[in-house]
Amino acid sequence: MLGAIAGDIIGSIYERHPIKNTEFPLFQPLSRFTDDTVMTCAIASAILTGEGYGETIKEFGCRFPGVGYGSKFRQWLISSTYIPYGSWGNGSAMRSSPVGWAFDTAEEVLEEARKTAEVTHNHPEGIKGAQAVALAVYLARTGSTKAEIRAEVRKRFKYALDQTLEEIRPFYTFEVSCQHSVPQSIIAFLESENVEDAIRKAVSLGGDSDTMACISGGIAEAFYGGLPEQLERFTRIRLPEDLLEIVDAFRERYVRW
């Protein structure tokens, strides 16, 4: 899941300042982790400890305020209930990559991804987005080819994955729905040559750059077998110690190259 976090940090600069090419400085002083990283770590922590997803997401959200949560999610965080709010936003998809590492069959991955989504994003599209990302990570880390990943995701979720980035980029704008950001993020991975390239391509669409790079980077890490040393170092030094401990504990238990 460090690929997802790297994508979030790199994309954070461009979330409100979109760029439409891949030629941008990768390592910038103001790059920072956002809600994508916090929620990814929350899901990883819940998997590690066996605690409920809703409880863990609330705990992490309150521990790390002001990192870019959407307005409905902020309201849910401070509420006294755990009632989901029917979201189809890509917040469900950005946090689901750990599921693709921790479970051993496609059906287990799909069921667990549903659970991670529905505590907040119980709209069918919100659930579908989380499942698509987790399944892509699972397929990538278990040896599927890009053609197989494309075919399986397209078959299960009816996402249109045949457009190229060159066709998408000129007309693409900021979009937070799963249905209009998850397929594009997966395409960025499918067209990539390595983890860095996947992140750059996701950012280059000029959309919700941190979340899209988080999704693409998480799948790419699983497919390419880890991060380059410089990219991993850049990512790790931007995480607080408590999040880094979760990353390392999760990798120790679940990640095998």
Briefly characterize the structure.
By secondary structure, the protein is an all-alpha fold. It is about 60% helix and about 0% strand. The longest helix has 18 residues, at about 125-140.
How do the strands and helices of this protein lay out in sequence?
Blueprint: H1 2-11, H2 35-49, H3 53-63, H4 71-78, H5 91-94, H6 97-102, H7 106-118, H8 124-141, H9 146-157, H10 165-168, H11 182-190, H12 195-203, H13 209-224, H14 229-236, H15 241-254
Helix pairs in contact: 1-12, 1-13, 1-14, 2-3, 2-15, 3-4, 7-8, 8-9, 8-13, 11-12, 11-13, 12-13
Descriptive overview:
The structure is a single chain. Helices cover 61% and strands 0% of the residues. The chain is mainly α and 257 residues long. It has one domain: ADP-ribosylglycohydrolase fold (Orthogonal Bundle), CATH 1.10.4080.10. The relative contact order is 0.19.
pLDDT below 50 for ≥5 consecutive residues: which ranges?
Answer: none
How many helical elements? Answer: 15
Can you identify the CATH class? Answer: Mainly Alpha
Task: Let me know the number of strands.
Answer: 0
Estimate the helix proportion, in percent: 55-70%
How would you name the CATH homologous superfamily? ADP-ribosylation/Crystallin J1
Helices and strands, in order, run as HHHHHHHHHHHHHHH
Strand coverage percent:
under 5%
